[in-house]
């Protein structure tokens, strides 16, 4: 699973995801892409599951670019622990995704294969997505 090698701070605030994506909303590398349509935190396990589904359907032909990276730690307290005593330890890593952000880009395959592969990948993600192509 993806996670940064080191961060400035060990724990992060929860935060809110406001507005639309300011960057990462245009295809830069591939011909086809998967665009996020709603704001959400995507966990590194979900990103990895989507990537595996995508590459398996493409049978490792073509090229896949991942345009998001989970760099925010989410802490969690153990079960059956009383209130107080500080914030829990970091458990997993997430990426805050705004609407309009491109998650995956694909190239080197035909449109039908890319469409089905990206649809399978989108089934692993907790958000509504949209298939886009370069004009």
Question: How would you describe what is shown here?
Answer:
By secondary structure, the chain is α+β, with helices and mostly antiparallel strands. The protein has helices spanning 44-57, 111-122, and strands spanning 32-36, 40-43, 63-66, 72-76, 89-97, 102-107, 129-133. The strands form 2 sheets. Strands 3-6-1-7 form a 4-stranded antiparallel beta sheet, with helices on one face. Helix 1 (44-57) runs antiparallel to helix 2. The radius of gyration is 17 Å and the shape is elongated. The two termini are 33 Å apart. The model has no long low-confidence stretch (mean pLDDT 96).
Give a brief outline of the structure:
By secondary structure, this protein is an alpha+beta fold.
Reported CATH architecture of the domain at 32-78 and 97-133: Alpha-Beta Complex
Instruction: Kindly provide the radius of gyration, computed on alpha-carbon positions and rounded to a whole number of angstroms.
Output: 17 Å
CATH superfamily of the domain at 32-78 and 97-133: Ribosomal protein L16/L10
Q: Remind me, CATH topology of the domain at 32-78 and 97-133?
A: Aldehyde Oxidoreductase, domain 3
Give the % helix: 10-25%
- Taken from the alpha-carbon principal axes, the silhouette is elongated
Mean pLDDT: 96
Structural class of the secondary structure composition?
alpha+beta
H/E series, N to C?
EEHEEEEHE
Provide a count of the helices.
2
Largest sheet: 4 strands, antiparallel
Instruction: Count all strands and give the number.
Output: 7
* The CATH C-level class name of the domain at 32-78 and 97-133: Alpha Beta
Give the strand order, joined by hyphens, for the main sheet: 3-6-1-7
Q: What's the quaternary structure here?
A: single chain
| Low-confidence runs | none
**Beginning-to-end CA distance, first to last residue:** 33 Å
């Amino acid at each position: 699973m993806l996670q940064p090698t080191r961060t400035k701070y060990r724990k992060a605030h929860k935060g809110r995801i406001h507005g639309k994506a300011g960057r990462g909303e245009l295809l830069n590398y591939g011909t086809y892409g998967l665009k996020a349509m709603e704001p959400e935190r995507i966990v590194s396990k979900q990103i990895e599951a989507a990537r595996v589904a995508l590459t398996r359907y493409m049978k490792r032909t073509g090229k896949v670019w991942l345009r998001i990276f989970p760099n925010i730690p989410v802490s969690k307290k153990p079960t059956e622990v009383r209130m107080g005593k500080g914030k829990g330890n970091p458990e997993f890593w997430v990426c805050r995704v705004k609407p309009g952000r491109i998650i995956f880009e694909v190239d080197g395959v035909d449109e039908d294969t890319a469409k089905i592969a990206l649809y399978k990948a989108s089934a692993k993600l907790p958000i509504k997505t949209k298939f886009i192509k370069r004009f």
